[in-house]
């Protein structure tokens, strides 16, 4: 299970639906349903580290501008075709915030330069990534556009992450990275973000209110590692998603049992594996035919020929370090 929260959700559902096979046998339930961390937290704890061979400070900007850089519709649609559930003026206020965020990025790069700093941006999935690549900042090499498969892989390569309030904050905290939030600095409208105030109330020291405070924090980035205070929403999220090393032997043992069962029954019910792979390949080819094939920085459509080696390079070190983290005693449990 991905975290204790998922375990509690299943137990609640079992009680409401009177699943006696669960509620009457808690020990059996705990044996079969092992609470481990979310795979993204494994990326945070293991694997990719800051690239070696450079003493430059790596600053990463979280992309958060789908209102003015959407990958499917033009900004004018958000302004003219306002839906009933959207408060009047909300799209305009969000676009104004996003414009100020782009201005902040540009000014910071100009002020710090690239002699001692590198800059990268991880676009929001709904953003038009191609638009970034057409800017002078990117063409000149001053700003890099990230194309990692997973957000946490990008976070692990940064020294300082800059962005607005979002659920990605627990991934930053779990990765032990420095963080600066710009919501209050840029007067972001918080009306539709019911969770924002609870997040920000837990990290006031990471929320500058003036440009001077912001620049001071950037220059002293190592003093602003995002820590998790007990009792906060971030603490609950990190605790709920981080893996527990004590569960590793049982988890691996379960994996061995599944693999063993698959070997004993090589022809399970369902579609043959070869046919499933073939259909997946045809689906990818059809996406390319329709013009939806993988584009640089597109996080939705992947070309199998490029994604497999990319996944091996990005996630391979994670698997190796997870295995290396299993102690000799735990290995004995695995092979006993």
What gross morphology would you assign?
Answer: globular
Structure summary, number of beta strands: 5
Note the main sheet.
5 strands, parallel
Q: What is the H/E string?
A: HHHHEHHEHHEHEHEHHHHHHH
Give the fraction of residues assigned to helices.
Answer: 40-55%
Number of helices: 17
- Placed side by side, the strands forming the largest sheet appear as 3-2-1-4-5
Q: Could you tell me the strand content as a percent range?
A: 5-15%
What does this structure look like?
- The protein is of the alpha/beta class and 336 residues long.
- Helices cover 51% and strands 7% of the residues.
- It has 17 helices and five strands.
- The chain has a five-stranded parallel sheet with strand order 3-2-1-4-5.
- Helix 10 links the parallel strand 4 and strand 5.
- The chain is globular, with a radius of gyration of 23 Å.
- The protein starts with a helix and ends with a helix.
How is the secondary structure organized here?
Layout: H1 4-16, H2 20-23, H3 26-32, H4 39-45, E1 57-62, H5 75-80, H6 90-112, E2 117-122, H7 129-133, H8 136-139, E3 144-145, H9 151-156, E4 160-163, H10 169-175, E5 178-181, H11 196-201, H12 211-219, H13 233-241, H14 248-264, H15 273-289, H16 304-325, H17 328-335
Parallel strand pairs: 1-2, 1-4, 2-3, 4-5
Helix pairs in contact: 4-10, 10-13, 14-17
């Amino acid at each position: 299970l991905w975290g204790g929260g998922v375990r509690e959700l299943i137990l609640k559902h079992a009680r409401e639906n009177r699943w006696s096979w669960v509620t009457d046998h808690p020990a059996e339930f705990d044996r079969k349903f092992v609470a481990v961390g979310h795979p993204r937290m494994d990326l945070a704890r293991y694997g990719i580290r800051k690239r070696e061979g450079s003493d430059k400070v790596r600053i990463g900007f979280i992309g958060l501008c789908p209102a003015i850089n959407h990958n499917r519709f033009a900004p004018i649609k958000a302004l003219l075709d306002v839906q009933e559930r959207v408060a009047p003026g909300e799209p305009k206020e969000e676009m104004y915030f996003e414009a100020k965020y782009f201005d902040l990025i540009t000014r910071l790069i100009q002020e710090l330069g690239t002699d001692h700093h590198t800059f990268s941006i991880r676009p929001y999935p709904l953003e038009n990534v191609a638009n970034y690549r057409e800017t002078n900042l990117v063409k000149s090499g001053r700003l890099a556009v990230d194309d990692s498969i997973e957000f946490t892989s990008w976070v692990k390569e940064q020294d300082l992450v800059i962005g607005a309030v979002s659920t990605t904050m627990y991934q930053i905290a779990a990765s032990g990275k420095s963080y600066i939030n710009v919501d209050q600095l840029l007067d972001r409208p918080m009306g539709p973000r019911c969770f924002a105030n609870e997040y920000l109330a837990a990290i006031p020291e990471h929320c500058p209110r003036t440009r001077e405070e912001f620049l001071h924090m950037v220059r002293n980035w190592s003093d602003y590692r995002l820590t998790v205070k007990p009792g906060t929403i971030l603490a609950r999220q990190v605790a709920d998603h981080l893996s527990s090393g004590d569960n590793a032997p049982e988890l691996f043992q379960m994996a061995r049992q599944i693999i063993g069962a698959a070997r004993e029954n090589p022809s399970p019910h369902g579609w043959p594996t070869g046919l499933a792979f073939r259909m997946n390949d045809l689906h990818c080819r059809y996406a390319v035919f329709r013009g939806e094939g993988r584009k640089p920085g597109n996080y939705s459509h992947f070309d199998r020929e490029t994604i497999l080696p990319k996944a091996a390079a990005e996630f391979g070190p994670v698997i190796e370090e997870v295995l290396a983290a299993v102690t000799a005693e735990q290995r004995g449990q695995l092979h006993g």
